[in-house]
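Question (not urgent): is this output format expected?
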Amino acid sequence: MNERKSIHGQWSSKLAFILAATGSAVGLGNIWKFPYITGENGGGAFVLVYLLCIALIGIPIMMAEVMLGRRGRRSPINTMALLASEEGKSNGWVALGWMGVVAGFLILSYYSVIAGWAMSYVFRTGSGMFVGATADGVSSIFTDFISDPEKLLAWHTIFMVMTMIVVARGVKNGLEKAVTLLMPLLFGLLLLVVGYAMTTGHFQQGLDFLFTPGPITGDAVLIAMGHAFFTLSLGMGAIMVYGSYLPKSTSITQAAFAVALADTAVALLAGMAIFPIVFANGLEPGAGPGLIFKTLPIAFGHMEGGILIGVSFFLLLVFAAWTSAISLIEPAVAYLVENRGMKRVYASVWIGVATWLVGIGSVLSFNVWADKTWSLPFIFENKNFNFFDTLDYMTANVMLPLGGLFIAIFAGWLMREQSSREEMNTWSWAYKAWRFLVRFVAPLAVIIVFLKAVDAI
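Got this back:
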């Protein structure tokens, strides 16, 4: 097969792809969710199960998604149309591309709102707002903030503009330059906060909370499976479109393992940074999402050097969100450039504004529309959702698992072995292991994750 070229350009190196894909994978969830669920679900035993799930589910599906992207060299929609035609399969497979693009679009619409909170807290912390604040005071600050739709809209707008600017500049001048700057800064800030955590006198207690093996339940295994899938940004088109910019000479196997390793390292380091601070200040480690905006600011307000550490922490959150956001908007922008002949700048503005408009619904979900809830049909009838909850639940629990499942089915069962072997271009034993996992183990695991997510099991 003659090598295809992406009209959008390509990464200059394997490292650029690894940084970009890691940036996509590392998001707000890595900073609080992984450490929290680790501590609550068996500590070291949970980490081992999670790493096993990454190897058996996350990496095989990531390799499949990157492989499809590089094979097609187009946006996810056009890639699936092309590959389905090449393999003699139904053109209905283009729906897989559409589902990924739409999922990324919807996720970014509310992700941008939460990222705006983190941006606001960089300045709130830097101004000394939390110095000496009580728990009630910090909680009141947060409640007043999310109750103000104008402030939330302003920060949502700023974050979306930042995202559009990067994507509008293209693969090499926008995406690559952004991730090669932001990802080292993200790791640096994380290490800075870990360094501070080591001085609190509670570093060992934090490590014990994270890594001491405890009893692990069946539910904990399901949680590990689910997080292993979601943490690598699979099923939303981002990894597929990033794969389309991957040089032919780059090993997909090595790149996927490097991304999974970096993503897991960030999650573990985040736990090592957060929990010693939590314990040193007598705070509640099981605070979940509230840990970021309600609990940690109390600590930052009372510790020596708390303003610097607090600003660093919230900057870390902003960078993590920013690198994820540019990957979420890229598939839709690539589609408009390819199918509508738009210049990249205009495509970025069109998609960015559309995303911003949908995001207004999430802004209002925390204040004006807070009481406007409804139940979704069928298996969701017993749940009441507002606008934000609906987007979050449907994307994370329905669209992404189905996207990952169909990627595994197409790559493992419908694509000719010759095609996938040619694109993988890896050791024979590695290809056979991948093919077995992507055909049998990963689909079954994703089905279980999906059924668990929708409360069917």
